[in-house]
Amino acid sequence: MYGYFFKLVLSVTAVLIAVYYAGGAFKNARRLNSRIEELKRDQEERKKRGEVQDPYAQLAELYAEQKNDQRKR
Length: 73
Known about the structure:
With 73 residues, the protein is an all-alpha fold. The protein has one domain (2-72). Helices cover 90% and strands 0% of the residues. The protein has helices at 2-49, 55-72. The longest helix is centred in the middle third of the chain and has 48 residues, at 2-49. It is rod-shaped and about 75 Å long. The termini are far apart.
């Protein structure tokens, strides 16, 4: 009797953990997609203005933004 109950509780717990991690992955994917879209818009604006595109400087800006986002949390 207790074995069946234990298996049921364990299964429900495993499903809840899987749903939690899937939700986190979905949230991270959406955040990453929005940042990629923002980067593309920024690159198009810079191209229209005729600025030289330096991918290393842009990467440094992204890392700085990421650190600022982490500090805010």
